[in-house]
## 1
Amino acid sequence: MARHEKRFPNRTGYNSIYMSSVPQEFRPIMWSYDFDQIDPAEDKTALVVQAINYGTLAHWRWLVKSYGREGVREVLSHIPATALRPRARRLASLVFGIGRFNYAPRGTH
């Protein structure tokens, strides 16, 4: 089995070993969600945003192991910049190589 096949055994690109369920360590940072109902594939954006904003290095590592750096980068590049705390946004931009976040245009009132 090739190294790539071992790491990403399914066609979605997610690592199925880590994607079967969300670790209990995420429960405190997912306080506003029904933790037992969280699906790692369906709730990817919520998991990434909460882990970047409130998580530890262990949470960030789980994100990378589960979704890959490119998967996390994709989520971060599509969410509004205001979804992330300023300090977390700066760190995430360095760690994940995000050159520019989405900023909502200001209204013309």
## 2
Amino acid sequence: MSSAVRTYIHQNRKSLKTVAFFCTQDGSESNVFKEMESLCEKAPLATLKLRKKEVKKDEYVHRVKQFIAEIQSVKNPSTNKERK
């Protein structure tokens, strides 16, 4: 996790009501979401990890839409039921 993200979370964690995490990464696996959850002291509504090759090939759009839908369904369960 970048020091900028770590600092932001540390400085704002008490005011974060809900969280969802996403990241892009080039190669090796990481535990960045576990670290972020620990710093926030909150479980995320959703997570999304995109690899560099997915972004370069424009293969990420569907996954981003799923991530957004997952957040919306948790935040607005009644709205989600109406859409079905």
## 3
Amino acid sequence: MTSTLINLSGHSITYQPSSGTSLVIPAAKAPAKVTKIYTSRAPINGIPIANVTYSKVTNLPDAVADTYLIVDHLVKAVETTRTDLITPDLGDSAITSNNTIVAITRFLI
């Protein structure tokens, strides 16, 4: 069985298997985003400080069987009950060039 992957992040994602051709998954035109509410606090040494509260997620469709939605880590952290959300593994397994991630080798669920 083949599952469907839909990229709802704002960035194209390059998946590089251990052997073979890489797969580029284009960025979403309307990515899933977390609504953030900022509350100003007293500055520290003249530098503005704010609290952030994470609210609802926008542009996130309902779950569909055999479909996984690629989202950023913050969306996944807010949507804790969803089992269809995956995020790129940006850790040690990611492929980098000049300290920039150029491809991933796996997703996290």
## 4
Amino acid sequence: MRDRCVDAQPGLPGGLEWPRRLDGATYHCVVLDFEAYAADCRLFGHLEPGDGRLTDLLNATAELRLEDVCLESLEDGHVVEIPEIVVSIGELCAVVASGPRGDIGRRLRTHASGSR
């Protein structure tokens, strides 16, 4: 499904590519491929998460601004592509987790130990 909505443009080291917008422009910042489910459709798009993790963003905001969005109807499967949408967090039933793990400084290192 995402392949119908977004292409990629070469140019980053290590075989990575900048994501490309539907209008042909490229993103030059951290952008997540966003996938979510609402009551009547699946949403695919690009989301700029800022400095935190996707989980932090979802917990801190009431709305998300997505770009290069594809909406796929759960009823009949038809797809609508739009350049931008603002969606309320309350409209989303589930979000597919993806993207960076967030700030390394906020991670807690743990190790297993046996009980005595």
